[in-house]
Model the fold of this input.
Amino acid sequence: MQKKTNSTPANFADYCTVKNLEISISGVEELPVVAKDILRFAGDKKVFAFYAEMGTGKTTLIKEICKQLGSHDNFSSPTYSIVNEYSVEASNSAFRIPPSKLFHIDCYRLKNFEEALSIGMEEYLSGDNYSFIEWPELVEQLLPDDVVKISIRSDGNVRNLSIFTK
Done:
């Protein structure tokens, strides 16, 4: 009998601490509950990275998450501005966050990593405020270890979300 051994990776603990949540959405009316579920799952984590193709609902989901955190601002896509800032003056949401800023960042139009640094990406990701990043591939190396990664896949009218965090 031959025994096959697999070497344990040096960062095996990383594999053991990853949590995930799977959610399917079939209509926008489900977004408030989905946003609350994502925030509960994230716990005290404040940086969220959204991976998805164009038109799958990244911005729509981020708007709802910001609403659930207590922001009443007018939400829009930051595709051209790169960063939109929203405020939470006094949280009346179930999440009871203190007055703070929410940053909605869209990296789609950034040309390179240096441009990401020049807009202050490190500052957006290192503070006590929430940051929601669309098209985060360019800034992966700046994301904190405990980032909440959300993948959205479209299957017709259904959106399938896979949410991962450490």
